From TrEMBL:
Nucleotidyltransferase in keyword set: no
SUPFAM superfamilies recorded: Bacterial exopeptidase dimerisation domain (SSF55031), Zn-dependent exopeptidases (SSF53187)
Name listed for the protein in its UniProt record: Glutamate carboxypeptidase
Catalytic residues, chain numbering: D81, E143 (proton acceptor)
Domain Peptidase M20 dimerisation: from-to ranges: 179-272
Required cofactor names: Zn(2+)
GO terms for MF: carboxypeptidase activity; metal ion binding
Organism per entry: Humitalea rosea
Pfam families documented for this protein: M20_dimer (PF07687), Peptidase_M20 (PF01546)
Upper lineage: Bacteria, Pseudomonadati, Pseudomonadota, Alphaproteobacteria, Acetobacterales
Keywords for the protein's UniProt record, in alphabetical order: Carboxypeptidase, Hydrolase, Metal-binding, Protease, Zinc
């Protein structure tokens, strides 16, 4: 059982509310940096060694906080960005409490988990709790778009660590943590056809939209549920008016795979769909963005420790394999034992009804704190 005292779920929710009410869409680095400022101030007040890496390419800053100690640290890594644009708090997603549920943009994915990580590290330092290893806390700004500017930093810190904890939302009705995830590929496709009048000059045109439609069916045919391979084409666009053969069209492709080999195969098959087809030029860019997170003996050992801590905190902690990716995919691919899905229970990630079961904040935080204190 963790010996650091984290407070009640009521007091945790009160502070978490301040995080949720600072809207942090990935696309607004200034907004993200205001929340980074708050986290940095809280950690500085208890003596954490801080490193702030300025944002680039239109994304916010990264924050690294370290506790004292010898040996390889335990890394806990969470993101502060959300999928929600500004204005959701004052329109259809205000912060509110309805019985056991607390609602708000990004509260489940994943401000509750990142806040619990921050709070655990802050209280370990404030209360001078001994830990078997030093701790590194990493807060990042761009996970929701594939971690383009934080991936190298995540991998740098993971490579120097003994273990990695990811406080992404707990999953399912029982609040499972995650020991495996699918790998994720992302592609963008552009079609360049030939414009023509759809009545008087139809034979002179080459429809980019028709080429798009054909490609969609080919991509969908790659789905193999037995292998754990899925594809999804969205969004799609093309054309301007019904009486114009469309010269331009495009789409994005999402690919999910269970193994590295399947990722390599499906990436090659999708990229091979580029070229000239019936007078339409097809460009395809992208590839595998996150490697699969494969369950290992080491991650199962971490899960057993988390199970015992959860039992001491009064609840059962199941595990699951999840189709969605996280930054844990990067760390597990490096061979660093990784346990994911350690955030709060709830539902509705990326949906208007996003919420947490707020009474679980304290017991979920106890497991995070216990892992940070006892992993050796």
């Amino acid at each position: 059982m963790a010996i650091t005292q984290l407070g009640t779920s009521e007091t945790l929710l009160e502070e978490l509310r301040g995080w949720v009410e600072m809207e942090t869409p990935t696309t607004d680095p200034a907004a993200l940096n205001r929340l980074i400022d708050r986290a940095q101030a809280g950690l500085a007040s208890v003596g954490a060694v801080l490193e702030r890496i300025p944002g680039r390419d239109g994304y916010g800053d990264n924050l690294v906080a370290r506790t004292p100690g010898a040996g390889k640290p335990v890394l806990i890594s969470g993101h502060l960005d959300t999928v929600w644009d500004h204005g959701k708090l004052t329109s259809d997603m205000p912060f509110r409490i309805e019985g056991e549920k607390a609602f708000g943009p990004g509260i489940y994915d994943m401000k509750a988990g990142s806040f619990l990580a921050f709070h655990a590290v802050r209280e370990i330092l404030r209360q001078k709790t001994p830990t078997r290893r030093p701790i590194t806390l990493l807060l990042t700004p761009d996970e929701e778009v594939g971690s383009p500017t934080s991936r190298a930093l995540i991998e740098r810190e993971a490579a120097a660590s003994a273990y990695v904890l990811i406080p992404e939302p707990a999953g399912g009705t029982q609040g499972a943590c995650v020991t495996a995830r699918k790998g994720v590929g992302r592609f963008e496709v552009k079609f360049h056809g030939v414009s023509a009048h759809s009545g008087g000059n139809w034979p002179d045109g080459r429809s980019a939209v028709v080429a798009l439609a054909r490609l969609i069916t080919e991509v969908h045919a790659l789905v193999d549920l037995d292998r754990g391979v899925t594809t999804n084409v969205a969004p799609v666009w093309g054309g301007s008016r019904p009486n114009v053969v469309p010269p331009e069209a495009g789409c994005e492709i999402d690919l999910r795979v269970g193994t590295v080999a399947d990722g390599e195969e499906m990436e090659a098959r999708i990229l091979a769909m580029a070229g000239m087809r019936d007078g339409v030029r097809i460009e395809i860019t992208g590839g595998m963005n996150r490697p699969p997170m494969v369950e290992s003996e080491a991650s199962l050992g971490m899960y057993a420790r988390a199970q015992a801590l959860a039992q001491a905190a009064g609840y059962h902690l199941p595990k699951q394999h999840r189709g969605g990716g996280s930054d844990g995919n990067f760390t597990a691919a490096l061979g660093i034992p990784t346990l994911d899905g350690l955030g709060c229970t709830g539902a509705g990630a990326h949906a208007p009804f996003e919420h947490i079961l707020w009474r679980d904040l304290a017991p979920r935080g106890e497991v995070i704190c216990g892992l940070l204190e006892t992993l050796d």
